[in-house]
Amino acid sequence: MSEHTLDARNLLCPLPVIRVQSKAQTLADGDTLKVICTDPGALSDIPAWCRINGHSVLDTQNIDKEVIITIKIAKDSA
Fold it and tell me: I need a surface site. Which of 23, 58, 60, 68 has the fewest CB within 10 A?
């Protein structure tokens, strides 16, 4: 299991979610992805995308004007 970071600062909806989806496809089951965004909508959009796709949100932070979301990647075992 590895830890990864995705810088999605200065991107507006829907680009942070699109970047998360693209990065998640390259990661292994159990990897974590820390996403750093400046779009406040990402605070609801990325967790919603995680629920739909079976990933887990481990932590969300709103520090200054940055949203930091940590995701645990889940891959289908089929």
Answer: 58
By percentage, how much of the chain surpasses pLDDT 70?
97
pLDDT at 65 over 60: yes
Q: Which residue range forms the structural domain that includes residue 49? A: 3-72
Residue 78 lies inside a defined structural domain of this protein: no
Distance CA 22, CA 66 (A): 21
Is 74 exposed, middle or buried, given 0-12, 13-18 or 19+ CB atoms closer than 10 A? Answer: middle
- Is 13 a residue of the active site? yes
Which residue among 11, 13, 15, 74 is the active-site one? 13
Does a cis peptide bond (omega within 30 degrees of 0) precede residue 47?
Answer: no
Q: How many domains does the chain have?
A: 1
| Domain CATH code at residue 20 | 3.30.110.40
- The per-residue pLDDT for 76 is 73
